[in-house]
Amino acid sequence: MDIKEVKEEFKKEEELLVKVFKLEKFIKKYKKPLIAFLIVLVVGLIGYNGYNYYKLQEKIKANNLLEEVISNPNNKEALNELKKYKDLYNLYLLQKGNFNKINSTLLEDIKAYEIAIKKGDIKSLEEYLNNPNYTILKNGVRVALIRLYLEKGNRDKALVYANEIPQTSQFKQFAIFLIHYGIVK
């Protein structure tokens, strides 16, 4: 090592010591606020994790209730407890086909779809398809309409609905199959 390298090394060590002393001075000056900040941070993290754990346990409890009510519909106690969880209760009602009791905007599309499919007539299915408020399951309705129009012998109208289904949709293959092979009466 030559003298320049030694001087540079001493300079670096001196700068490091100066920074350490400044840090020590800063810590002494703001010791109480730093400790208070750390305590608040730790308490906040514990509270946040505790809240998330509580929410997770609530979801597990609600899912277990739904499972219990589905497997044992006569369990009135579990059903009454499930009513506290409105979304899952509405899902249960949807699964049971009690459409008139469902009051969830989240399930409105599915409710309307189920009603249209259960009616199974062209008018109901086209009303669902033409309603701009319903955005999901439209391709499934198109396949149902294709089947109905093919049963009536209206291949041209069935082709119109088949062409409206995007190539990326899983329903496209069903539509192609129905159009290609038709309906056997």
How would you sum up this structure, described in words?
By secondary structure, this protein is mainly α. It has two domains: 1-104, no CATH class; 107-180. Helix content is 76%, strand content 0%. The chain has nine helices and no strands. The longest helix is centred in the N-terminal third of the chain and has 41 residues, at 31-71. It starts with a helix and ends with a helix.
Q: How would you summarize what this structure contains?
A:
The protein is mainly α. It contains nine helices and no strands.
Q: Give the distance, in angstroms, between the N- and C-terminal Cα atoms.
A: 99 Å
Give a count of the beta strands, DSSP E runs of length 2 or more: 0
What share of residues is helical? over 70%
- Assembly form of the protein: single chain
* Class computed from helices, strands and strand pairing: mainly alpha
Number of helical segments with 4 or more residues: 9
- Strand percentage lies at under 5%
Question: How many structural domains in the coordinates?
Answer: 2
Main sheet overview: none
Q: Specify the overall morphology.
A: elongated
- Which stretches of 5+ consecutive residues score pLDDT under 50? none
- What is the arithmetic mean of pLDDT? 88
The rounded Rg comes to: 33 Å
Features:
single chain, 185 residues, mainly alpha, 9 helices
Element layout with pairings:
Layout: H1 3-29, H2 31-71, H3 76-82, H4 86-96, H5 108-119, H6 122-130, H7 138-151, H8 155-164, H9 172-181
